[in-house]
Amino acid sequence: MRPATDSRQRILDVALREFAQRGYSGARMGAIAREAGVNKALPFYYFSSKENLYAEVVTRVMGEFLEKIGPMLTPELTPDVLLERFPRVLIEFFAHKRDFLRIVGRELLDGSARAPELLARRMRSEPHGGPVFFSGMVKKWFDAGLIREPDPVQFMLHLFSLCIYSILARPMVEAAFRIRNQSDKDFYEKRIRSVTAVLKEGILT
């Protein structure tokens, strides 16, 4: 990796942690530069402002996720295939992106639209059409009698809530049930199987 590219990447990595810990308002460009081990002017050189750095941090992670799910989002996609594959991709990806979930969760709790708007804009820019594509597929599946849920918003909430909340709530659940030393692989593999079964039973006809 070239030095300039390496410095830019370090800034992004540190900024992700800084925004997760302190939120957009509390994060400081100077602190990000110090932690990344670069000149304090360098974050501004690469991103020109804290707002642009924040946007890059948020949309970069979402872009990585969209690259993973993109190949399955074709006109030939069926609901049973989606419900079989999507929970695994979603949970395995975001289980390693907890700082990103903290950023989005903090904004949702604070009522800020900054990250949600950035994510929505990024999804709408996908070649397959993002939410428009998904809405059309849900209508198609419902009209064909393949699924019980006609509302694409509710369909998507079923998917994300069952998958993402399992990542956020894991420490609380493990403490409540006094589960210790459970590996990530074991925990998330069980969760993927359970979520997939629940979604198929509840949504497919």
Short recap of the structure:
This protein has helices at 3-26, 29-36, 42-47, 50-69, 79-94, 98-110, 114-124, 131-143, 152-168, 170-176, 184-203. It is mainly α.
Question: Which short descriptors sum up this protein?
Answer:
single chain, 205 residues, mainly alpha, Arc Repressor Mutant, subunit A, Tetracycline Repressor, domain 2, 0% strand
Description:
The protein is mainly alpha-helical. The relative contact order is 0.10. Helix 1 (3-26) crosses helix 4, helix 4 packs across helix 7 (114-124) and helix 9 (152-168) runs antiparallel to helix 11 (184-203). The model has no long low-confidence stretch (mean pLDDT 92). The chain folds into 2 domains: 1-48, Orthogonal Bundle (Arc Repressor Mutant, subunit A); 55-203, Tetracycline Repressor, domain 2 (Orthogonal Bundle). The chain is built from 11 helices and no strands.
Taking all Cα atoms into account, the compactness measure Rg is 19 Å
Number of helices: 11
Structural class: mainly alpha
What is the CATH C-level name of the largest domain? Mainly Alpha
Strand fraction equals: under 5%
The number of domains is 2
User: From N to C, what is the helix and strand string?
Assistant: HHHHHHHHHHH
Low-confidence runs (pLDDT<50, min 5 residues)? none
What is the architecture of the largest domain at the second tier of CATH?
Orthogonal Bundle
The counted number of beta strands is 0
Tertiary shape = globular
N→C terminal distance:
51 Å
- Per the CATH scheme, the topology name of the largest domain is Tetracycline Repressor, domain 2
Largest sheet: none
The helical percent reads over 70%
- Overall pLDDT level: 92
